[in-house]
Amino acid sequence: xxxxxxxxxxxxxxxxxxxxxxxxxxxxxxxxxxxxxxxxxxxxxxxxxxxxxxxxxxxxxxxxxxxxxxxxxxxxxxxxxxxxx
Length: 85
Known about the structure:
Elements: E1 20-21, E2 24-25, E3 28-29, E4 34-35, E5 41-45, E6 53-54, E7 65-68, E8 71-76, E9 79-84
Parallel strand pairs: 5-6
Antiparallel strand pairs: 1-4, 2-3, 5-7, 8-9
């Protein structure tokens, strides 16, 4: 098997906002937008067996980057609020 280099934190949450990621090369869109709101994290990398979003650029590693949504507590005007970021 392949050892994952990232583990999700306990406060990981699926976002409530429908985020999209637009991929461009040389100023032109490469494909339709990627919908990145359907799970709590997305792994980018060259290792297609584990990457949620495969990338083929030679400068990228097998497990290159992660977008992680998580629940955070934030004080706004003296009141605690919870948001997924």
